[in-house]
Specification:
Blueprint lengths: L2 H8 L10 E3 H11 L4 E4 L6 H9 L3 E4 L3 H15 L3 E5 L3 H16 L3 E7 L2 H5 L10 H5 L5 E4 L6 H13 L5 E7 H5 L1 E3 H7 L14 H12 L4 E5 L1 H5 L3 H11 L3 E3 L19 H7 L2 E5 L22 E6 L13 E4 L2 H12 L8 H22 L8 H13 L5 E5 L2 H9 L8 E2 L10 H12 L3 E6 H7 L3 H6 L4 E7 L28 H7 L3 E5 L2 H14 L3 E6 L24
Parallel strand pairs: 2-3, 2-4, 4-5, 5-7, 6-7, 9-10, 9-11, 11-12, 12-13, 14-15, 14-16, 16-17, 17-19, 18-19
Antiparallel strand pairs: 1-8
Helix pairs in contact: 2-8, 4-5, 4-19, 11-15, 13-15, 17-18, 17-23
Amino acid sequence: MSVEESALRSKISKDGETGDLTDGFHLLIDAFQKNGLNNIYGVPGIPITDFGRLAQAAGMRVLSFRHEQHAGNAAAIAGYLTGKPGLCLTVSAPGFLNGLTALANATTNCFPMILLSGSSEREIVDLQQGDYEEMDQLAIAKPLCKAAYRVLHAEDIGIAVARAIRSAVSGRPGGVYLDLPAKLFGQVMDAEKGHRSLVQVIDPAPRQLPGPDAIERALTVLKDAKRPLIILGKGAAYAQVDDTVKEFVEKSGVPYLPMSMAKGLLPDNHPQSAGAARSLALLKSDVVVMIGARLNWLLSHGKGKGWGEAGSKKFIQVDIDPKEMDSNVEIAAPVVGDIGSCLQAMIDGMGVGWSAPPSDWTTALNEKRDGNLAKMKQRLGSDTKPMDYHTALGALKEIIADRPDAILVNEGANTLDFARSIIDMYKPRKRIDVGTWGIMGIGMGAAVAAAVETNHPVLAVEGDSAFGFSGMEIETICRYNLPVCIVVFNNNGIYRGTDVNPTGGDDVAPTVFVKDIRYDKMMEAFGGIGENATTRDELTEAVTKAMDSGKPTLVNAVIDETSGTESGRIGNLNPQSVVKRS
């Protein structure tokens, strides 16, 4: 059914006041707009093509991608940046499966997102009669998200959207799947009844106050610490209680480490930052306060060799999910609640006479930090030819420092690992990267969402391998004329471009790409600006121009192909064969 046929058949006005009928198309649009959800990321096609057209006609912004996974990644980052669920719209079966990867990633990273997928009719799916793109999508989605719902009747659309919103943002945020069979869209009902069926979600993510005994216990453990450390996770950034986080850190006087997406909650040049003394801080601390961070593989589960002897530390963990406590090690002081309420209670409990940590601890960390930064500064100021990671990232570090409102999107292996420690952030939620799973391919979707949701310039720093996962979306960036500058660190391969085929055959090694690719020419093909940079000065000039112009730009940054290490800094996760065959 076309847009014109739908409008004629339903005799509708959007608000139901001048007509007598409405349908599933318009009820779904009205339900989203009633709850302030006005951006949709997706890929059009059967059976949701007309929904996208009608949503755009109703004033929603509908951004069409080239692949559903990247649209889903965009929706997830929209959720992270706004605190409201991002919307991803896909077709059925293969389109749904493409979006499902992003939905699972959103759930793992605690990003609120709703995946909306058209689907086959239940009676055909249940009898497995071979419908167009037949698949039991609801059953497949359930294990990979916080909640999954199917809507069969137009009068249930309002309550279904409300449940999806509340599920996505309440407690620990995550992904929600909403299954929309094709027949739902064309269902017709009385407009006034339909209008009354819509729900405005009140307080979708209510505060969860911690118990007074939990606060007292946590403060007692912290007060007795000789070498305390705070670790800030992306959950602390998502909470958007930036002033409270800052007050707690500064009033406690405790050194802190930010996880990568928490960088900028306090400026990376803050005097209490121990980011450049990370190894020493983790090894020697005796009490660790986890705020919106999890003791997963990114922190060696709290018990790897970098943490010192087993049992040498006590942990205070602030998290909205009680099930997170004791996930890897014993938590001496669990504080369950929303981060703002928990930290405010701890601030209030400190009173006026709170003592700073022992000076020998803070002095040791500061000396280590300052020494490491001095060594790093020498490397970042180099002008190697061809560029290595430090040369190129040293240039980008200065560009971000001059533009603290810009959003940095970062993915890759070496490109990610070096950038995390080199590029300082100065404001919260300005750094977006691969998150908990450490996956590749989030770059272009994240860049689109960051530009759309914030209207700030975006600098996407990509490894050449990582860029390949979502590179076609540069057409999307050009189509919507978004202020995104992409820098592809091009060293001719995965990790590096120097591996060889051990057989001496014609095929290149599995990690090697076509030599001297010009990624900038791709951007030019879509009407954007392409630049090729072989030196630090050329890179600085090209990126500065792009960030100031706001025009879609791709800079092909030529990196020494010998530069880089296996799997970045997680090579230990890549098993090595010890079997030798004759």
